[in-house]
Amino acid sequence: MSKKWSISIPASTANLGPGFDSIGIALDKYLKVDVEVSENWKIDNLSDNLPEVLYPQDHLMVQAAQKTAQMHGLELPACHLEVKSEIPLARGMGSSASAIVAGIEVANQVLDLQLTSQDKLKVATSMEGHPDNAAASIYGGFTISSSAENGEIHVFHTVNVDAAFVLFIPNFELKTEKARNALPETYSRKIAAQASAVSNLLIAALLSQSFEQAGVYMEEDLFHEPYRLDLISESREIKIAAKKAGAYGTCISGAGPTLLSLVERGTEEEFISRLSGIFPNFQLVPVSINRTGIVASKNKKGSAVLS
After folding, report:
1. Is 14 assigned to a binding site?
2. According to its UniProt record, which reaction does this protein catalyse (predicted)?
3. Are the C-beta atoms of 158 and 279 separated by less than 8 Å?
4. 92 is in an annotated binding site
5. pLDDT band at 208 (very low <50, low <70, confident <90, very high)
């Protein structure tokens, strides 16, 4: 009987304004992979939102899987991967983190490594450089994460944030490297202290379900949004229009160019209707928080189906 597994990894949004490189939220958009041990590596893309990679060894998912195996002194057998994705590339929704986490889970399942969430996050962070998106995809829900100098990764995780969001997904990309390069190398002590205080207030508001307050703090970031908004066409106009349409607050999702509005639960479709046709270069999509993180299962019947 052939060995097959099905893996589902949620998308993520990071920062949420002032929670720069630390806050992550898992979203109900998914990267799904069917895995089967095979004689040779093969990747079949069964949907849009996936990179066309000529050689499997150059694929981020395969690299993450092989790195995970090597870190445990093992060799990963070749696999046939059938992949579907609802996560658009280079839009600030954690597509690369999801691919890395998926690769780690491939190795975890195929080699029966029995990795903990912390183990997976260490591998993902070594590849991503920071843990925010990967933590959300691994744990699900709302996460705050930090990489310590000694290599330890600290994570706070809860599923008890009952927020609702609408994404403004543009029809253009923004590479993370360009968004990173827009940031200053240093911040004054005054700016750093003020920006950190706003981040603390945002976290307190979210954890106490005070979403109207959270929306205010989402829009007071000093770490990255002042430098990135002008890289995203119509972003400032969207923030103003979203507020008029009822959003508590709007911020850049990750490094952009997607924007994310925090809205009252149950008003998502009304909010979208009010903005219909105003920003034709953006698709408005309601999203909820994913609360499961990674979901993986072994198919005992020898066939795995992506839903």
Report:
1. no
2. L-homoserine + ATP = O-phospho-L-homoserine + ADP + H(+)
3. no
4. yes
5. very high
